[in-house]
Amino acid sequence: MGVRLQGFNVFITGGSCGMGYEMAKELLSRGATVVISARGVEKLNKAYEKLKSEGYDVYSIPLDVTNEESVNNAVTWYKEHFDHLDMLVNNAGIGNNAPGMISIKDNKHFYDIPVSTFKSIVETNFNGIFLVSRAFVPIMIEKGKGRIVNVSTSASTMTRKGMIPYGPSKAAMEAMSTILSEELKEFEITVNIICPGGPTDTDMTTEEMKTFFNENDIPILKSNILNKTILFLASPNADGLTGEKIIGKEFNEWLKNRNISFEC
Ligand SMILES: NC(=O)c1ccc[n+]([C@@H]2O[C@H](COP(=O)([O-])OP(=O)(O)OC[C@H]3O[C@@H](n4cnc5c(N)ncnc54)[C@H](OP(=O)(O)O)[C@@H]3O)[C@@H](O)[C@H]2O)c1
């Protein structure tokens, strides 16, 4: 029969394209109610219209995860429309596609990165998770349950040459996620990390990067690589599971190693 998610409410940051959009669509197709959010209103509306035209129970709200007022407005709007939140997916992120980011071909150093670019990547990938989580968590605490899923990157990306500040921003985010998973146990709120497990075919992976990966025989993953993992984390099979990092590409092995049978 597979996973059914009627009555299951999800809020996804960065749901207008890429992996966020794919995860939203997967959850919607199982009956969940999903709110997608992002900064760019045009792209967000297009994604919303597409999902709505397919008959899904989808909503959208503009949101900049780096802006406290924008985050608070989204929470106010959410509370006006819904009485509970089952899952928050902190997916919004920027990397080599960030304005001012150095080209992959340039072979430059960390000191060549404009300070404004450094700050915007850290603010999005690290501060943003803090701002969004602290604003939405009270809704979960009130109901005594909830799931937070934070989208990260591979461990090797965190410390690889040329990955400042993207890698460290995700490393800090993972450290924060682990602390959140401990602190929120008393409220029955779980916190887990997911990541694709390699470069993925989304807007974040620029054409220049795709060429580089192709030339170096590095496989590019499909943008739906996290769908099965997010479905699992939304399902009753993941009840109580917290503090984990699951790699989308290796999800089947992860299940096998833990003797978990999951029919999606
Ligand atoms: N692509 C990869 O190779 C790869 C690999 C490992 C991990 N990841 C991670 O996967 C996640 C999803 O990335 P993706 O590859 O699917 O990228 P994507 O296609 O570029 O999507 C990123 C989404 O985040 C939104 N966003 C960016 N900044 C935001 C902000 N300040 N506030 C709210 N929304 C914001 C974007 O919309 P707006 O720009 O309109 O706001 C968009 O909806 C990210 O956390 C990324 O770090 C990606």
Automatic annotation (TrEMBL):
One of its GO terms (molecular function) is oxidoreductase activity. Coiled coil: none annotated. The keyword NADP applies. Keywords: NADP, Oxidoreductase. Belongs to the short-chain dehydrogenases/reductases (SDR) family. This is Gluconate 5-dehydrogenase. It comes from Anaeromyces robustus.
